[in-house]
Amino acid sequence: MTLVETDVIPRFASGVRLKHDQVRSRHVVLGPELLVDLNQTGHAILKEVDGSRSIAKIIERLATEFEVDAELITTDVREFCTGMLRRQVLSQ
């Protein structure tokens, strides 16, 4: 599997948004015929997606926020974003 490069600037695909679902008491991604339940990691990553930050910048911000080495989370963030691109939650 080819992972998304760190210089890619992800944005939410058209009609897709991040939302807190009161019924499920968790964050979800909503879109046309789409509902993705997110765990804390997924939510932490997607809340950084704003259409101007690259994957590298998102990794840097998460590493700072959670006080971890960026190298430790790089693969996880790239894998997650690659999956979200494939599911058409994110676009480039």
Question: Any key phrases for this structure?
Answer:
single chain; 92 residues; alpha+beta; three-stranded antiparallel beta sheet; two-stranded antiparallel sheet; 5 strands; globular
Structural account:
This protein has 92 residues and is α+β, with helices and mostly antiparallel strands. 38% of the residues lie in helices and 21% in strands. The protein has helices at 40-46, 55-65, 70-86; strands spanning 11-12, 17-21, 26-31, 34-37, 90-91. It is globular. The two termini are 18 Å apart. The model has no long low-confidence stretch (mean pLDDT 96).
Secondary structure elements and their pairing?
Layout: E1 11-12, E2 17-21, E3 26-31, E4 34-37, H1 40-46, H2 55-65, H3 70-86, E5 90-91
Antiparallel strand pairs: 1-5, 2-3, 3-4
Helix pairs in contact: 2-3
The helix content is 25-40%
Strand arrangement in the largest pleated sheet: 2-3-4
Strand content: 15-25%
Helix and strand sequence: EEEEHHHE
**Helix segment count?**
3
Low-pLDDT runs of 5+ residues are: none
DSSP strand tally: 5
